[in-house]
Amino acid sequence: MVNFFKQLFSAGRKEESSEAILLLEGYDTFETARKLELEENMEEALKYYDIAINGGLNRALSPQAFILQKLDYDFEAIEAFTKAISNSPKDSNIFFGRHLSKSKIGDIEGAIEDIKQAILLSKTNSHLNREYDTEVQKLGYPNIETFYKTYLLNVEMDIDLTMQQREKLKAKRKYRS
What we know:
Blueprint: H1 2-10, H2 14-38, H3 42-54, H4 61-70, H5 74-87, H6 92-105, H7 108-122, H8 127-137, H9 144-176
């Protein structure tokens, strides 16, 4: 496919044709990355997403971030999610993904901020949110908003438990003093 378009654009101006070729190669690379991801070959998929992004295909930012997260590269995932958010600021799932990585590294305030933004964005009636609704309904949730709210409650409960544990430790120190 790329060869066909290379020939098609080579008749035009050199600058325009080379940009178009890079973009088409980026799409091919993106499709290869998606295929590798489906095959659970995450390290290799990540390489192809990187190539697609470097070729100007911003649509690869979000999948790249989620793969970094799956590979437990949470600091890199947060950076990648941030770039993906700047490219797709109304996509609630990208905020949700960044929330998960921030939770993992202990940035609880940042995690709460992101999950609240995901909840806010999930209330918008959009095609993307309807797709997310369909996916979480398979998991037993009525919609994506409820799914995100469950995660917010979990984070808040973790904070409460941590605070209770700290109080118990303080009480033990006072007792021993």
